[in-house]
Design brief:
The complex is a heterodimer of chains A (563) and B (342).
Chain A lengths: L1 H44 L11 H8 L1 H34 L5 H8 L8 H11 L17 H25 L3 H9 L4 H30 L2 H6 L6 H11 L3 H28 L17 H30 E3 L3 E4 L13 H32 L4 H12 L6 H12 L13 H11 L1 H13 L4 H8 L4 H12 L1 H17 L15 H10 L3 H33 L2 H4 L1
Antiparallel strand pairs in A: 1-2
Helix pairs in contact in A: 1-11, 1-13, 1-14, 1-15, 3-6, 3-8, 3-12, 5-6, 5-12, 5-22, 6-8, 8-11, 10-11, 11-15, 12-22, 13-14, 13-16, 13-17, 13-20, 13-21, 17-20, 18-19, 20-22, 21-22
Chain B lengths: L2 H20 L1 E7 L3 H14 L3 E7 L2 H10 L8 E6 H9 L3 E2 L16 H4 L8 E13 H7 L19 E4 L5 H29 E5 L4 H7 L5 E5 H9 L4 E4 L7 E9 L5 H11 L2 H8 L4 E2 L15 H4 L5 H6 L1 H12 L6
Parallel strand pairs in B: 1-2, 1-3, 6-7, 6-8
Antiparallel strand pairs in B: 3-10, 4-10, 5-8, 5-9, 5-10, 5-11
Helix pairs in contact in B: 7-14
The chains are: A mainly alpha (563), B alpha/beta (342).
Pfam families (chain B): SBP_bac_6
GO molecular function (chain B): thiamine binding; thiamine pyrophosphate binding
Keywords (chain B): Signal
């Protein structure tokens, strides 16, 4: 009798201890992987080469070099232009998907996300073939050069577009038909109900989308690196200072400046998210578009033009990788896929990227999802759980270039207990996981919020330790979301270049970095080939994921249809 | 994984680690053109299969900056194929270990550290070959754009070349620096900078590597690329519609050289590689890409190189180029950096 009441209590207290340990471990990961490196970088920006404190001297020096200061203005210019372009295009396309009866929506949605599967270097390479001095459409630029702001804006718009489209499609999908019915009954013209119902309804989504796009644009490195020509931006300045001149202090200064707009837009986004209370009451009736041939036709033409451009850009990269010697010898060959002894590591770099992508997908998914579960579904240690949630939101505000440089500073310190990580694949895994942590965290939280809290309560009352509930119930039930996260991590690990460009070494060269080096060394066709290889790898994984999710949803997740 | 499979895996792993234990891994920093790196390692391994080379490769300026940044905690065991001007800078910093490789007396004395030839000390570095400035000119684009084939450096400052010339950034590219250093030596500081000011007005962009301008000329992205003979000759034999121009004022050049990094704990392996790097075999290897090599009598003529290239090379003062490297590069950056790629 005594023993049987004691056992569960002891179990419960040891469970609490394990929970605490797990929470602390989760926090430690983000402290070591994010906070300490960033702090080290901030410190470096106010030190000289010998590590002595010199206050703001580095910053003063920065603002005295016109070429460097110029980059701030240029970064803002291309980022704002890209943001305007991408948000308008994405809004129209999202409107077509959600609010019209245009044909072929599903095909369009598939085509529209293709850019995400390619490294941002790919559109930049294609643009040279399309609009370069030998490009097919160079006359369209009316004598302007593609190497510079025009090329940067076009290239960035290409790969950022799917991100914006996804946010806006979600925002526009939520609608209350009753409002539109009321407007119609009152004889409100269509344009007026668009201004007074549709736009206000998606304003939070629109603002959030604008900031996400702006952050992606101002921090992108791949596009301006390849096609920026003489036009330097903050992200390429960080690279030039660090890799080209090994001036780490100045690299830190530019990083701090690059961090500012990203952090600012992050804060604004968070504030807006907080104000966004449920716009849709439980009684809302989802609005269903009715066919309107003219409108549907126009949107179909528009959306398929956008999809056509996407296919053209990807197709151009594929073509570029196959042509013998562009533009003078147009016979096709697979030679450029040999990468024989070229810069960047060739096929071994591709294998390394695969290793990295699989490791990040596997480890990252488990870690992120488990941490999110600890935050959402366990009780006690509220401050710790809130702290972990806050930390999980931070990586979104940190540009890749900044995170990569911060890792050099932190992990390459003599005396750092984690110094052994430096130069290994493990540091690339850690860096990539942290870099893309936030989106995975948010996906996990959303999936977990949809689950009934009763699962945990029942588990606890049946005296089942929480990790068994997690393994047997929560994880399997959330499998679609978990798969989403792992594919997201996989694809990003394959395509990212900004953070890892500072962290690879000769044994851990990556495919995305190889694209960069091949282009730098003048092997343009091989650079295109490597970019296409990355794209195809992501595509195959994405297709497998789609098939697997389909099977899961039809076979193992029938219960979902009941709700 | 079944027990059997994991057993097999562990046997395979330990076998792999045993062969790895036998081979010494040597970290070698280099700026050698990357399409040749594999060949260099393979040839060396034919003679010495027990030493495995881990290459760290980038453009000259990047590798030099990296070596300097790592001065207190060097990561490289050896340097094989970096500009002599850079090695002189590193020597000044006390980062190179003096060593006289076996057979060094057979080399052309011009290719060996003067400390050896003049003072009889062990040399800090040993030259391999000379790489020579040249201009890649795209004949098809030249005709189309009305840009005549240049014959001199001075031609490039003529108005018809505006926007049609690309050259490497000397801060990252060794070829870029040898151009700048040779102009300053040919014409003196004042006239040299004046020339670059005028040239800058015609340049459409500065690239990261010394190869890129010629590759861009080969694909018609530019008409004129200031580059070096090796890349031009290779692209031409691959079918690019380019002609190599060797400007009449004289050709700037630099030496690719090898050295042991002071403080390496793999001295024996590094010395083995140094011995091989000055051998006749190695020089025959260098000669596959470069017309002028350190070992006398080895050099065979190479396609697309002029036969009198040695006479056309300027009397380059590497000591000057090394001593003034930082000052010249800072000045260059101050004047022209806004048009640079990275």
């Amino acid at each position: 009798m005594i023993a049987s009441t004691l056992m569960p209590a002891r179990l419960r207290s040891s469970e609490a201890l394990i929970r605490l340990a797990a929470l602390l471990l989760g926090l430690a990961l983000l402290v070591v992987g994010l906070l300490l490196p960033l702090l080290t970088m901030l410190v470096k920006s106010v030190q000289d080469r010998n590590g002595d404190f010199i206050g703001l001297t580095n910053f003063i020096h920065y603002f005295q070099v016109p070429a460097l200061v110029n980059s701030i203005q240029q970064s803002l210019f291309v980022a704002l232009l890209s943001t305007m372009l991408v948000v308008s295009l994405a809004f129209l396309c999202a409107y077509g998907i959600t609010r019209t009866c245009m044909p072929g929506k599903r095909v369009f949605r598939v085509l529209a996300i293709l850019p995400i599967l390619a490294p941002s270097l790919l559109p930049a390479i294609s643009l040279v073939y399309l609009f370069g001095n030998q490009g097919w459409f160079r006359e369209a630029l009316m004598g302007q050069s593609i190497y510079g702001p025009i090329g940067i804006v076009m290239g960035m718009s290409f790969w950022i577009f799917p991100h914006a489209l996804m946010i806006l499609t979600t925002a526009l999908a939520n609608s209350d038909a009753r409002l539109y019915e009321a407007a119609e009954a009152l004889g409100t013209p269509k344009w007026r109900s668009f201004l007074t119902i549709t736009l206000p309804g998606v304003r939070y989504g629109l603002i959030s989308c604008t900031f996400v796009v702006f952050t992606l644009a101002i921090t992108d490195f791949g596009v301006p690196k390849i096609i920026g020509g003489q036009y330097s931006v903050l992200a390429t300045d960080v690279y030039r200072q660090v890799v080209g001149q090994q001036n780490f202090q100045m690299g830190a200064v530019v990083s701090v400046i690059l961090l500012l707009p990203a952090v600012l837009s992050f804060i604004v986004d968070r504030l807006i998210q907080r104000r966004q209370v449920a716009q849709l009451s439980a009684r809302a009736v989802p609005w269903q578009p009715t066919p309107a041939p003219l409108r549907d036709g126009l949107f179909a033409i528009f959306c398929y033009s956008v999809a056509g451009v996407i296919l053209l850009v990807i197709g151009t990269a594929v073509y570029a990788s196959l042509v013998q010697f562009w533009p003078y010898k147009l016979s096709l060959t697979l030679d450029h896929y040999g990468f024989d002894g070229l810069a960047g590591g060739g096929w071994s770099a591709w294998f390394n990227s695969l290793k990295l992508a699989f490791s990040v997908a596997l480890i990252g998914t488990l870690v992120v999802f488990f941490n999110a579960w600890l935050i959402e579904k366990s009780d006690g240690f509220a401050p710790l759980r809130q702290g972990l949630h806050f930390m999980a939101m931070l990586p979104m505000a940190v540009p890749g270039m900044v995170l990569g440089l911060a890792y050099i500073f932190f992990f390459n310190q003599a005396g750092n207990p984690f110094n052994w990580l430096y130069g290994t694949l493990a540091i690339l895994v850690l860096n990539t996981l942290i870099h893309f942590y936030t989106v995975c965290h948010l996906t996990s939280v959303t999936a977990l919020k949809q689950l009934d809290p009763e699962f945990e309560a029942v588990g606890a009352s049946l005296k089942v330790p929480f990790w068994i509930t997690f393994r047997r119930i929560t994880l399997p039930v959330s499998l679609p979301a978990v798969l989403d996260i792992s594919v997201y991590l996989f694809v990003n690990a394959m395509t990212t270049v900004s953070a890892v460009v500072f962290l690879y070494n000769s044994d851990t060269r990556l495919a995305s970095v190889a694209v960069l080096h091949l282009d730098e060394a003048g092997y343009f066709a091989s650079a295109a080939a490597m970019a296409v290889l990355i794209f195809l790898t992501s595509l195959v994984v994405k297709l497998l994921h789609a098939a697997l999710t389909h099977v899961l949803l039809t076979k193992a997740q029938r219960w979902r249809q009941a709700t | 994984m079944t027990l059997q499979r994991s057993l097999i895996a562990s046997v395979v792993l330990s076998a792999a680690s045993m062969t790895a234990a036998q081979a010494t891994e040597l970290t070698v920093y280099t700026a050698v053109e990357s399409d040749d790196l594999q060949k260099y390692a393979e040839r060396f391994n034919q003679a010495h299969p027990d030493i495995e080379i881990r290459w760290v490769r980038d453009s000259t300026g990047v590798i030099t900056a990296r070596l300097l940044a790592e001065k207190d905690n060097p990561q490289a065991d050896m340097i094989w194929g970096l500009a002599a001007t850079s090695l002189l800078v590193l020597e000044e910093e006390g980062m190179l270990e003096r060593y006289a490789p076996a057979g060094i007396e057979k080399l052309d004395p011009k290719f060996v550290d003067v400390a050896y030839t003049r003072d009889g000390e062990d040399p800090a570095w040993v030259g391999m070959d000379a790489w020579v400035a040249s201009i890649c000119y795209n004949t098809i684009e030249g005709e189309k754009n009305g840009v005549p084939k240049p014959t001199s450096w001075n031609d490039l400052t003529q108005p018809e070349y505006e926007g049609h010339v690309i050259m490497p950034n000397p801060n990252s590219s060794g070829t870029g620096y040898l151009d700048v250093a040779s102009w300053l030596q040919l014409w003196g500081e004042e006239q040299g900078w004046d020339y670059m000011d005028r040239l800058h007005d015609n340049i459409s962009r500065y690239t990261h590597s010394g190869s890129a301008p010629c590759s861009l000329a080969a694909t018609g992205e530019t008409t004129v690329g200031v580059s070096f003979a090796f890349r031009g000759a290779r692209l031409k034999s691959q079918g690019a519609p380019i002609e190599l121009v060797f400007p009449e004022e004289g050709l700037g050049w630099d030496m690719e050289a090898a050295a042991i990094v002071a403080g390496t704990d793999k001295r024996e392996a590094a010395q083995t590689l140094m011995d091989w790097a000055v051998s006749q075999d190695a020089n025959e290897l260098y000669n596959e890409g470069y017309a002028v090599v350190a070992y006398p009598g080895v050099a065979q003529p190479i396609d697309n190189y002029p036969s009198n290239i040695v006479e056309r090379m300027i009397d380059a003062d590497f000591q000057w180029a090394a001593l003034n490297r930082k000052r010249v590069l800072d000045e260059w950056q101050r004047r022209y950096d806004s048009k640079s790629e990275e």
